[in-house]
Structure formats: C-alpha cells, structure tokens
Amino acid sequence: MRLQRAGIDTYRQPVVYMPADCHLCRAEGFSALARVRISLGGHTIVATLNVLTDANWLPPGTAGLSDAAWRALSAREGDVGTFAHPEPPASTSAIRAKAYGGRLDDDACKAIIEDTVAHRLSDLDLAAFVTACAGDNLDAAETIALTRAMIGVGERLDWGGGPVLDKHCVGGLPGNRTTPIVVAIVAAAGHRIPKTSSRAITSPAGTADTMEVMAPVALDITAMRRVIEAEGGCIVWGGGLELSPADDILIRIERPLDFDSEGQMVASILSKKAAAGSTHVLIDMPVGPTAKVRSVAAAEALSRRLSIVAEDMGLHLAVHRSDGTAPIGRGLGPCLEARDVLAVLRRSPDAPADLRARALDIAGAVLGMTGRETSGGDRVEALLDSGAAEAKFMAICDAQGGFSEPGEAPNRHVVSADRDGIVASFDNRRIARIAKLSGAPGRKTSGVRLHVRLGERVRRGAPLYEIHAETPGELGWALDYAEAGPAPIKLEDEA
Q1: Residue 473: is it exposed, middle or buried by C-beta count within 10 angstroms (0-12/13-18/19+)?
Q2: Contact status, residue 90 vs residue 35, Cβ threshold 8 Å
Q3: Model confidence over 303-345: pLDDT tens digits?
Q4: DSSP string covering 282-337, please?
Q5: pLDDT, mean of residues 294-306
Q6: What angle separates helix 106-117 from helix 92-99, to the nearest 10 degrees?
Q7: What is residue 302's predicted lDDT score, i.e. its pLDDT?
Q8: What pLDDT is stored for residue 373 in this prediction?
Q9: In the Cβ-directed half-sphere of 313, how many Cα atoms lie within 13 Å?
C-alpha cells in the first residue's frame, strides 16, 4: 500500500491507520490493535493498527503512518510499503514466565529489551513486563542483566580520561530541583558534568521538564558534545540521545501506571549513567514516610542494590541520603520549580533556603567524589555567592539554544488554613497529585506553590498553598481533589 504521513504524534509508538474496508485488512484479517509488520527499503517496523471507520482523509489504497512510524521507516510521500503479519516476539514467553514467578537471565533480558526498542512488543506486553517486575520482584542478578541489556541497545559516550561527574535523585520528593544548581556549581569549579535527565514519571516535573522552560533540552549527541566542550556541563533530556532507548519506552508505560519497580529504577538510572560516559555518580536518596523511599531499611536495601549494579558497571557510586519528610523549595511544576532554581542562582533575598542548602550539600558531595576537592563548605558556597554559578548556568543555557524566563499561570486559587496551628507534616504524594491534576508537567506553568514550611506557625485564614493552572477546568479538578480527602498539609495545635 501507498504510505501517507498522518500528522499524528504517538510519541515513540509506531501506529498505522487503515480503513476498516480496505482490501489489505480484509485479505490479511487485520483488525483493530493488531500488530502489523511494515517494510520499506531496508527499514522494517512493527506498528499497532488503528482502524478508521471514517477514512475520508486517506486516499484509496493508502495507509497513514504516525510520526514515529514515518520517521522509523524514513518514508517519503508516495512510497509503497509491504505489509505482513509479524512473527510473534520471542521475548513474550520470558515475560509470561516472569509474571508467573520465574527469573530473568541475561538472554531473557536481552531479548525483551531488543524487542522493546524494535517495537515488536505491544503496549500490553510492556505493561505486563513492568507489572511483573513491580515492587521488589527483580533480584540483584536480574537487575544487573536488565541494566546490561539496556546499555547494549543504545549509544555509549566516551569523554576521554579523567573523572566525569554526575548526580541523580531517586525522586519522590516534590520540588527537589537541585540539579540545575549543582551542575552550574560543578561546571563552574572546572569539572565535567554531562547531565542527562528524564521527564516526569510519577512527579509534577522532572528535571528535563523544569530545564526546558529555561532552555532547549532535546539536543542530539553532537550538540551535547559542543555544550560540554564549551561549558563543561549541560542539562539535556536523555530521551533524545538514544543512550538508553529502552528506558524512555518503559517510562512511557510506567507513567500512566503511576508506579516504579525498584529493579527497573536501578537499571534505568545506572544504564543511563554508564551510557552517558559518567565515571563518578552521586545518588541523592530522600527518605520519608510519603517519599518514594519511606524508611531507613528501604534506603539501605536500595543503596545495596545500586552499589552492586554500579560495581558491575565499573561506576564509582556514592549514596547521599537526605530528608524526605517535606517538599523542597516553594514550587511544584516546571515553571514554578524553575523560578526557585533561578532565585537561588541569582542569590535573591527570598530564595528558598532549603533548596539552596540542599544544592550546596549535594554539589559539595559530588566534588568530594573526585578526591581532588574537599566536600561541602567554602568552595561550593563561594561559587554560588560570587555569581560564578549563575554565570555558568546562563552560559550553559546559551550553549543549549538560549535562555527564557519561566512563565506564569493565568488561573490561581489560594488554599488557606481553617484554624491556628503549627505545620506538622506534608503528604508529599497528595500535594504532588494536586499539582499533577492542575496540569503539571504537561502544562508548564501549572502546579502548586507552597506558602508554609514544616514547623511554621500559621493563623486561621493564612495561605497554605496556591494552585496554579492554565485552564479553569484543571484548576477546578485539582481543587476538587484537594478538598475531597485528607489535607495535604497537616496542622497541629500549638503546645
């Protein structure tokens, strides 16, 4: 059949659109959501079929391709593709075995990841894999096998001799946007820190989402190298680099499921760090009752898993545990978090003190990993207070394509205290959910702005937090959720 670009963004999922009454569907028995192998020249993909009941926009004898399918086939208008039933992917038996309590060896992980990046597995197959691995259902050996497989299907960067520094936060703590500040400080200190970051999975913003409102992050490897050569540091979206391409596909499945697998999280983090050419990696691990890592015991187990896999990958790794009891900074959502970052870098009098302190702490620990600098203290604080970190951050933004000031949402609602009291606790998960319902991270200016901190005294009628939204409907949706259940900020009577 002739091929036509449908002009539909299906992210990384190849989709083909065909009329229900087309001759090929009738002859081959293709039905909705069938997997279809399409070949063109030297390119072959497996796409998911969407059947059109009203195909007036497609000429007879033509199949439409989503943007992802079009790019994967390197198609041009008028090309004729060959359609067939695909061979069943061999890795589905390994997924089925894992779902029934089996173990994944090196060959099984390699087959699953290769089938993932070749789009031979449907979203249902991938959801089954993610679910079968959820929680603590991957042991250390399986995690190592999965990490190796994820590295094996992508590019791997080499920055030459010397330490290549990196940091990563395991997440679960809203507003903990230290990375842009840490990268600016470390690069200003003269070290290389090629930071690749992901978009949000279960949070109102990932580092890439926040950085993107200030500078372009969808750089290719060539552009990323130019930034590092010029400035020593960068903050780019890892999904555009093909360093660990399976990870971005799995994240697309994990996001609507709204959960993580510990083993897959470790494989995700360390496959990207190894592929990015990092030699020294600091893991920031917030621990708190409503953070992703909820207890000291869970932190110790995850730290052991990270250390075992990192050693196998040849990475120098350190785990930096931090307080995960309350959000960091004031903003939750891409633009709101970006404003906090800029306030710290610009040394504004009203900059969030907790974000500044945590960024300095982590930057010192990262520099300390090199063995060439003492951790913490005067060095990193001087780089921030002198303006050197701000200047380096702006130079990095310019090198990545130019700096932009974060925008502001047009719709807002303040939630106030209904009584006098002391701020006793934050429900990180609930406050993050409010921010997501307001539109974050897809709506860049949406989210939540906090007005109080842990331990602060408040009076009845004082603002606790403010919901920001780009549309009135999303503002109402977030507010309904906030009012329907337990308060995300708990007040206790003054002693």
Answers
A1: exposed
A2: no
A3: 999 999 999 999 999 999 999 999 999 999 999 999 999 999 9
A4: EEEEEE-TTSSB-SHHHHHHHHHHHHHHHHHHT-EEEEEEEE-SS-SSSEESHHHH
A5: 94
A6: 120
A7: 93
A8: 61
A9: 38
Q: What is the mean pLDDT of the chain?
A: 92
Rounded distance between C-alpha atoms, residue 226 and residue 242, angstroms = 17
User: Which residues, at least 6 apart from 256, have a Cβ–Cβ distance to it below 8 Å?
Assistant: none
What burial class does residue 379 get, using C-beta atoms within 10 Å of its C-beta: 0-12 exposed, 13-18 middle, 19+ buried? middle
Q: Provide the token pair at 87.
A: 């061979």
- In tens, the pLDDT along 197-227 reads 888 877 899 999 999 999 999 999 999 999 9
- Is residue 30 within 8 A of residue 62, CB to CB? The reply is no
The pair of structure tokens assigned to 394 is 């702006």
Contacts of 47 (CB under 8 A, 6+ apart): 14, 15, 16, 35, 36, 38, 65, 66, 69, 119
Continuous segment of H or E residues that includes residue 457: strand 457-458
177 in Cβ contact with 205 (< 8 Å): yes
User: CB under 8 Å to 342, separation ≥6 — which residues?
Assistant: 214, 348, 406
Say if pTM beats, i.e. exceeds, 0.70.
yes
d(CA 126, CA 116): 8
Other CB atoms within 10 A of residue 330 CB: 24
SS3 255: helix
3-state secondary structure 173-225: CCCCCCHHHHHHHHHHCCCCEEEEECCCCCCCCCHHHHHHCCCCCCCCHHHHH
- Please report the sign of the dihedral spanned by the C-alpha atoms of residue 425, residue 306, residue 150, residue 316: positive
Q: Please give the structure tokens belonging to residue 451.
A: 């007005």
Q: Which two tokens stand for residue 61?
A: 């004898």
Distance (Å, whole) CA 341 – CA 95: 42
Which residues are identified as catalytic? Answer: 260
Residue 396: closest CA among 217, 177, 205, 175: 217
The secondary structure element, H or E, covering residue 423 is: strand 421-426
Greater model confidence, 172 or 162: 162
> Do you find a cis peptide bond into 406, omega within 30 degrees of 0?
no
244 by Cβ neighbours in 10 Å (0-12 / 13-18 / 19+) ranks as buried
Helix or strand (DSSP H, E) at 36: strand 35-40
Which amino acid, one-letter code, is at 228?
A: I
Average pLDDT estimate for 468-485: 95
Written as one letter, the residue type at 167 is: K
pLDDT at res. 368: 92
> Which contiguous run of DSSP H or E holds residue 168?
strand 165-169
Single-letter amino acid, residue 457: R
Alpha carbon distance 323, 350 (integer Å): 22
